[in-house]
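1st attempt posting a full record on here, be nice pls
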Amino acid sequence: MTVSAPETSVAASIIVVRNLVKQFGRFAALRGVSAEFGAGKFHVILGDNGAGKTTLLRALAGLAHPTRGEISILGKTPHEACREIGYMAHPSLLYDEMSGAENLRYFARLYDIAGDERCDEVIRLVRLDPELARPVGKYSQGMRQRMSLARAILHDPKILLLDEPFSNVDVHSAREMVGLLKGMRDAGKTIFVVTHQAALLEGVADEFVWMRAGQIVERTAHLTPDALTPDPPRAGAQ
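the predicted structure (as tokens):
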């Protein structure tokens, strides 16, 4: 069963997904997903391994081309809207041999961002020191995740797509990251987070989006214990 968003006009939705299917060979990671998402909201995507969470996030980011179906982001395709999207992958997309500031300066050139001011600004925003000369490969996991978030927000996107941002991060650092994301949502950004640590976002997220077997099966305003009953794992999960 596919559950769509509560009735809302397309004009009020920043993202519209229609009958989205993504197949890897014979395996369908997404099976006819249809949904609309409003601007300036914090959405948490939940489900067991193989439910389709990361595949959906990658499709929204334009990194997984749909087998069938359509995605509209700000009235554009994901590729056309890429400048308005910040994506944080589960594995780090940083260069370990470079410092955090050197990483951001490299990515800044890709976005035609001149000077170091914006790089220093986002490093401080995630509560790291722009003067830290240590290579990223020697950062703690919490520091790496913060720097990955800094890279995702470097070009000031309207939409953030974050895959497991709290993975292997201590509770204190994770809660600080939640506070950072809440502030970004309050400033008007639309945020999607895939996580297995949903309890961290109780009382912060606007919506919990539940996926099962490649479909959205429920959308709730609160994280409820009944919804946490796990499904059996499926072979060939993405």
